[in-house]
Each structure stands twice: as C-alpha cells, then as structure tokens.
Amino acid sequence: MMKLIVGNKGSGKTKTLIKMVNDAVAVTKGNVVCVEKGSVMTFDINYKARLIDIDHYDVMGYDALYGFLTGILAGNYDITHLFVDATLRIGGRDYVALADMLAKMKKVVSERGDTELVFTISCDKSELPESVQDMIL
C-alpha cells in the first residue's frame, strides 16, 4: 500500500510522518525504515526504526530515488514500513517524473504485498497529477 502526506510547507507533514513511524514500530513484527533529507528526525524517531539520511548517498532525481528505495527493499524482505520525508527536495519539482516514480514504486510494493510505503510531498494536492490523487491521505 502506498500513501502520500501532502501539504504546503509548515502544514505538519513531518510531524504526521514521525507519528506514523513511531506507531508502526510499536505494532510491526518486521523492520521500519525512514529515509530523510538531512538529520532532522534523529531524536524524534523511535530507536528501533532504521533512519537513513539520504544526503550521505548523493541521491538526486527520481530515477536515483527509485533505485535507492528498491535497493533497500531488495536487501531486506523483513521491511514492513518504508517512509520517505522531503520527497520533492530529493527528486525535484517535476510532478510528471514524481508520478512516474510513484507508479513504479506502487508496482514494486504491490508485488511484495506486505510493505507500506509513505511519502511526504510539500505542495498543494491540486498541483499533483490525477494519477496520484488516490494515494493522498
């Protein structure tokens, strides 16, 4: 399952994501992974979640982000939840490329069947393509 937390800057997306990560850690029997840009959530995320600062890996653009995320999933089949914060800061403001990457990730997640994937996207939901509207929380 894929979900998008969408809203303009300052609307509480990261706070919502932190709560979702900590709630997932409390109930899952698998692993929870959170990808962030910078070390913003270090003290807010439960220590049982794997927190990855994507800046350490020089990931830029949606193709690179797709490869990075699928690599994480391929390397560990015990991942039940994968969270990505600051998606547009990683991939850029190309909403068509974003929608394409989300479609590919949705296919990967549906084939795995047991992983929840959540992205935060800092924009107004009306700016996003119609193809991703059904994923918005």
What keywords describe this structure?
about 140 residues, five-stranded parallel sheet, 5 strands, Rossmann fold, 4 helices, alpha/beta, about 20% strand
In brief:
By secondary structure, the chain is an alpha/beta fold. The protein is 38% helix and 21% strand.
Tally of alpha and pi helices:
4
**How are the strands of the biggest sheet laid out side by side?**
1-5-4-2-3
Name the CATH homologous superfamily: P-loop containing nucleotide triphosphate hydrolases
Largest sheet: 5 strands, parallel
Topology:
Elements: E1 2-7, H1 13-27, E2 31-36, E3 50-53, H2 62-75, E4 79-84, H3 87-91, H4 95-112, E5 116-122
Parallel strand pairs: 1-5, 2-3, 2-4, 4-5
Helix pairs in contact: 2-4
Structure, explained:
The protein has helices spanning 13-27, 62-75, 87-91, 95-112; strands at residues 2-7, 31-36, 50-53, 79-84, 116-122. With 137 residues, it is of the alpha/beta class. The model has no long low-confidence stretch (mean pLDDT 94).
